[in-house]
Write a structure and sequence with these properties.
- The protein has two domains: 63 residues, Arc Repressor Mutant, subunit A; 155 residues, Up-down Bundle (Four Helix Bundle (Hemerythrin (Met), subunit A)), CATH 1.20.120.530.
- By secondary structure, the protein is mainly α.
- Strand 1 and strand 2 form a beta hairpin.
- It has eleven helices and two strands.
- InterPro entries: GntR_C (IPR011711), TF_FadR/GntR_C (IPR008920), Tscrpt_reg_HTH_GntR (IPR000524), WH-like_DNA-bd_sf (IPR036388), WH_DNA-bd_sf (IPR036390).
- This is HTH gntR-type domain-containing protein.
């Protein structure tokens, strides 16, 4: 672990970017004064964390990658599973966090992100009869706002939980009338963010998440009590 931390620190110190190769094995063995087995275990750990990719063959070796939220998603899911936390935990967390994300996004979201947010809303409206497209655009909408908040913690947190946020993984269904309600809510949130109105953005998101919670509580109370499991996709 200590060697892995030193490798990451050196990646930052050198200013390495995605696609850069790390020094050859012999150079790292000399630099870190360790055995080959320790180095390879350290590199394997960093590969599992998405920091590097180990390219095989001549000219291969460790190559710098951009970590994503997959490692965080696994860790969070396992932590919640071993706490026997119900899915209700996710719904309650959304109510506390997403209005703040929308509030920050209203003043921090870039024009490109705003365009992407608008597209997700429009595409959802155009494909309202297609539940799979609806669910995809629903995830996309909340992901853009989280990253658009300008807060990296929010961005990666939502990215890591996208597979669970809407409840579809545990059986919460979205008939067309519910999809229409979500589309209208997304439209209201988009308009508030596009107007650069933090208070209105937070209020619109709060109402959206509250409506989701009321719907789930009314229609699927037993599913909200379903323990979170790593098998959820």
């Amino acid at each position: 672990m200590l060697v892995a931390q030193r490798i990451v620190a050196d990646i930052q110190r050198r200013g390495n970017t995605v696609g850069d190769r790390l020094p050859p094995e012999r150079a790292m063995l000399e630099n870190y004064q360790i055995g080959r087995g320790t180095l390879r275990e350290s590199l394997r750990f960093l590969e599992l964390q998405g920091v590097i990719a180990l390219k095989p063959g001549p000219g291969g070796g460790p190559v710098v990658q951009q970590p994503d939220g997959s490692g965080l998603a696994t860790a969070l899911t396992l932590l919640l599973q071993f706490e026997n936390a119900p899915f209700r935990t996710i719904a309650e967390s959304r109510a506390g966090l997403e209005p703040m994300m929308a509030q920050l996004a209203a003043s921090r979201m870039s024009e490109q992100q705003l365009t992407e947010l608008k597209h997700s809303v429009e595409h959802m409206g155009e494909q309202i009869g297609d539940e799979s497209e609806f669910l995809e655009m629903n995830k996309r909408f909340h992901d853009i706002i989280a990253h658009g908040s300008g807060n990296a913690m929010f961005g990666y947190l939502v990215e890591s939980l996208l597979g669970m946020l809407d409840g579809s993984a545990i059986g919460i269904d979205y008939p067309e009338h519910r999809r229409t309600a979500v589309y209208e809510a997304h439209s209201n949130i988009y308009e508030a963010i596009a107007a650069r109105d933090p208070a209105a953005s937070a209020a619109a998101m709060h109402e959206h998440i509250s409506a989701y919670a009321r719907y789930a509580e009314r229609k699927y109370p037993e599913l909200l009590d379903t323990p979170i499991s790593w098998t959820i996709r």
